[in-house]
């Protein structure tokens, strides 16, 4: 077994055995920026992009074949899968609604940063995607070829300016295609988004725990894109296996300081017509890789005077970097699939999920962490609970080459699909405190009951005392939440099936689930909070998971909030 197994064990037990360095204290005054800064580069402002009111969150979470097509040329939306194509307005809108700044957080709440919020240098800005600790370490690069609207090259998305910053001029998409490998999707396009993670941007606060947190951030960002684009019939299919070191060299980054976690090929519209017109200038025969060495020359200007290195973080980057191009064989994940629900447990049927008709953009802009605002006196409805569980289940299908979901109209490259469908890695549990018509207790979610999704009772009785006792922080009263959802993944089984890079996959899936639940809660007029600060082992014991390899990796609290909270409106867009 490699280091990823050791790290996974340390993460699970950190509530009882602290991870090194145990005496670490963040130097807040010397912290990094929340985003890269490239001095002196050319900046291209982006439009906000429109978003159809009919592009609902329900559409964004549906299976690929049932999603609508956004045909702006015809002026309507039809059902049939991912047939749409991106243009600059769509791309800009997706960036704005995921990692772009949309407002300022000034509400009175129970988190530890409350006293800092009024001070502009410490301002907390709202974004559509969630991020551990609000640190947003994912760096977004657009590598574009001749079919795009800008001169081909490499651009960095500056969230603070909602603009693209040119880092390199010239078509290097052939190098990207070569790094992805011949079996990867995306060979017929020359537009790619690359997601990197600048570790110090998170590690200055979370030290050795950082790798665990940032790999979930990647999943949250990807899920935001998949919902946003999917509701419009646009495809976002992330690739997680590729020649990472080659892409790091192209981007001019040290692979020990910045990991390259995902590549997203984009189908691009003909610049002579609107997106969805069915024509494309993407090259039919991809150009050969760039023959001479080429890399981004501008360098990120680091704010911190002192940048620390953490042994566990570097070891995990090294472990997951190895064999990065060895895309798993078809069906490799099947042995690591989530275990079926226990058929001997009492079944409590769920009603039909409440529709989520709100458009994805509006839901993302409503998304926030509740931080102590939950009110037990206003129970969650069973229909709202059913919708959140369905959203979490849909969010676990990450698509691309993850093996956890694949659009039916694309060919099945090795490792992306199996003959009997996608692999569901995650299983969901619910600790019910205050849900109308559902007795308090702990339950496992059974989405495949013949009569519709249902809950299976694990233990009866109020879980509030257990939940609060095993939560480390003071920013939530878990007993006040209507329900606490817990996704589990058989992490060690995934590592055994696809190697140590599978750790990134596990956490990306969990991050995607969290983002789906956050967004669904906003669409359902519920508060939501996600946390990693709990005793994982206690949850294993409480849910009877010993011997199953199931690892509870985060908790998601949903519930109604107290009326008329103290807040200030500070929207940017």
UniProtKB/TrEMBL annotation:
UniProt-recorded Gene Ontology molecular function terms: oxidoreductase activity
Domain annotation Nitroreductase: ranges: 365-559
Residues covered by region (Disordered): 52-78, 272-303
Pfam families per the UniProt record, alphabetical: Nitroreductase (PF00881)
Basic and acidic residues: compositionally biased ranges: 59-75
Organism: Streptomyces oceani
UniProt name for this protein: Nitroreductase
């Amino acid at each position: 077994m490699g280091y990823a197994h050791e790290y996974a064990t340390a993460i699970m037990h950190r509530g009882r055995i602290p991870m090194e360095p145990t005496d670490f204290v963040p130097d807040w005054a010397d912290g990094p920026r929340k985003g890269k800064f490239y001095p002196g580069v050319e900046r291209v402002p982006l439009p906000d992009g429109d978003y159809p009111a009919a592009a609902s969150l329900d559409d964004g979470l549906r299976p690929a074949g049932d999603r609508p097509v956004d045909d702006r040329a015809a002026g309507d939306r039809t059902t049939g899968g991912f047939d749409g194509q991106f243009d600059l307005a769509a791309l800009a809108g997706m960036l704005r609604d995921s990692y772009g700044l949309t407002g300022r957080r000034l509400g009175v709440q129970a988190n530890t940063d409350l006293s800092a919020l009024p001070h502009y240098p410490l301002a907390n800005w709202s974004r559509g995607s969630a991020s551990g600790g609000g640190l947003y370490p994912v760096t977004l690069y657009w590598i574009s070829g001749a079919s795009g609207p800008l001169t081909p090259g490499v651009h960095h998305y500056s969230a603070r300016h909602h603009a693209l910053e040119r880092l390199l001029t010239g078509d290097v998409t052939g190098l990207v295609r070569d790094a992805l490998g011949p079996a990867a999707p995306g060979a017929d396009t020359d537009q790619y988004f690359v997601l990197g993670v600048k570790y110090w941007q998170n590690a200055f606060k979370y030290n050795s725990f950082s790798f665990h947190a940032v790999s979930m951030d990647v999943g949250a960002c990807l899920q935001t894109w998949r919902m946003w684009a999917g509701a419009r019939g646009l495809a976002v299919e992330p690739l997680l296996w590729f020649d990472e070191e080659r892409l790091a060299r192209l981007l001019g980054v040290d692979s020990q300081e910045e990991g390259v976690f995902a590549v997203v090929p984009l189908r691009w519209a003909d610049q002579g017509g609107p997106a969805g017109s069915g024509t494309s200038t993407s090259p039919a025969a991809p150009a050969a890789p760039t023959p001479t060495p080429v890399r981004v020359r501008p360098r990120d200007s680091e704010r911190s005077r002192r940048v620390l290195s953490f042994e566990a973080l570097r070891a995990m980057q090294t472990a997951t970097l190895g064999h990065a191009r060895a895309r798993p064989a078809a069906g490799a994940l099947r042995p690591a699939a989530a275990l079926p629900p226990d058929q001997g447990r009492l079944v409590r049927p769920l009603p039909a999920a409440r529709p989520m008709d709100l458009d994805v953009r509006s839901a993302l802009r409503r998304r926030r962490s509740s931080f102590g605002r939950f009110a037990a006196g206003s129970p969650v409805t069973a229909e709202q609970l059913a919708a959140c569980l369905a959203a979490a289940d849909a969010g676990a299908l990450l698509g691309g080459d993850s093996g956890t979901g694949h659009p039916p109209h694309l060919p099945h490259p090795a490792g992306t699909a199996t003959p009997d469908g996608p692999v569901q890695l995650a299983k969901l549990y619910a600790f019910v405190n205050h849900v109308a018509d559902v007795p308090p207790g702990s339950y496992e979610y059974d989405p495949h009951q013949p009569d519709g999704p249902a809950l299976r009772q694990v233990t009866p009785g109020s879980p509030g005392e257990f939940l609060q006792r095993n939560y480390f922080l003071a920013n939530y009263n878990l007993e006040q939440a209507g329900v606490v959802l817990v996704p589990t993944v058989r992490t060690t089984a995934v590592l055994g099936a696809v190697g140590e890079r599978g750790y990134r996959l596990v956490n990306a899936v969990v991050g995607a689930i969290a983002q789906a639940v956050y967004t669904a809660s906003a669409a359902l007029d519920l508060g939501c909070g996600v946390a990693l600060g709990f005793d994982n082992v206690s949850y294993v014991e409480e849910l009877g998971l010993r011997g199953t390899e199931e690892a509870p990796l985060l908790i998601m609290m949903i519930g109604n909030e107290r009326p008329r909270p103290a807040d200030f409106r500070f929207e940017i867009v």
